[in-house]
Description:
Layout: E1 2-6, E2 31-35, E3 43-49, E4 52-61, H1 66-71, E5 77-84, H2 96-99, H3 104-119, H4 123-126, E6 130-139, H5 144-165, E7 178-186, E8 189-192, H6 196-199, E9 204-211, E10 216-223, H7 230-255
Parallel strand pairs: 5-6
Antiparallel strand pairs: 1-2, 2-3, 3-4, 4-6, 7-8, 7-9, 9-10
Helix pairs in contact: 3-5, 5-7
Amino acid sequence: MSHDLDRSSPAAPGEAASRPDGRRPDELRPIGFRNHIAPHAAGSTLIEWGQTRVICAATVEEAVPRWMKEQGVPGGWITAEYSMLPYSTLGRKPREISRGRIEGRTQEIQRLIGRALRAAVDLERLGSRTLWIDCDVLQADGGTRTAAITGASVALRLAIGKLRADGLLPSDPIRHSVAAVSVGLIGGQPRVDLCYQEDSAADVDMNLVMTSAGEFVEVQGTGERASFSEEQLASMIALGRSALSRLFDLQAAAASP
């Protein structure tokens, strides 16, 4: 099922020149979800966010990590793996397995995805099982980690729905949805949802990860070419929060039966 959900109005005259694609500073790129893209997964979606496309799929393993057993930790676990396919970028990106190691960026992103999802789920209610979330980038144009988190939350909800429909979960362990969005400063102006062209030129780059209850999971902010003030930080967070509220609505529509 395809959910083509966010087609914001074009920028007003005079605003179009401010961004490469003519968006307003507070405007998200078009976002859509195509669910059940991986039929052997318990839940899956292809998130299309501008020109960035990521397949997010959740599979279920009826076991927990060894450390949980050894430490007597109750409940289940959620973990993630992330990869950029060789043809996802303009120049071919070699598979990491061919290099014999996982890049630091990849490790950082997949840990972030796992942390984000676990923050929104009651792991004890999940039961003694592991949900694996695989996020594979088909096409990259900025915001692959934010798209992966946002799509993974939909895939997770679809997988939980299947477990409940199969009678394997007596109650819903998902407390909230979780989503992420990028924000940045370019020429001193805050902008939300940076495409690659903007991301590579940003003075400040930030990723916000939040739950639908309005709580922060992670704030990643870096001065790439300049420092930023407390006032600028507040403006970026406000811009990101507004965008995230729209993302939660889109997720809810995508995951609805």
